[in-house]
Task: structure prediction
Amino acid sequence: QVQLVESGGGLVPAGGSLTLSCVVAGRSANFFRGVTMAWYRQAPGNERDLVASISRDGNKEYADSVKGRFTISRDIALYQVDLQMNSLKPEDTAVYYCNLRGLGLNSWGKGTLVTISS
Result:
């Protein structure tokens, strides 16, 4: 498995912004180029849902609920994927998980809590 280190969660008022970061530890740039990175979220009592993903080709996909508000990006040199979240809503409150998929792997970070106050 691969170690994914997430950071950036916290408490933010509605309408605010937050950036989550996920670093892939102990791997090479070529490895990082060959995988799909994604952010999922799970609110209490709900399933874990895809928020955004970026493929090895750089193609991005977003859940309908976050389109136009969230942006996923990747920095290959830093082995890092970020999720820029703007215009946050209380319904965005959840634990956000980083996911790496590809090259025979499907790895998860431990999650970072995002709480949006109304």
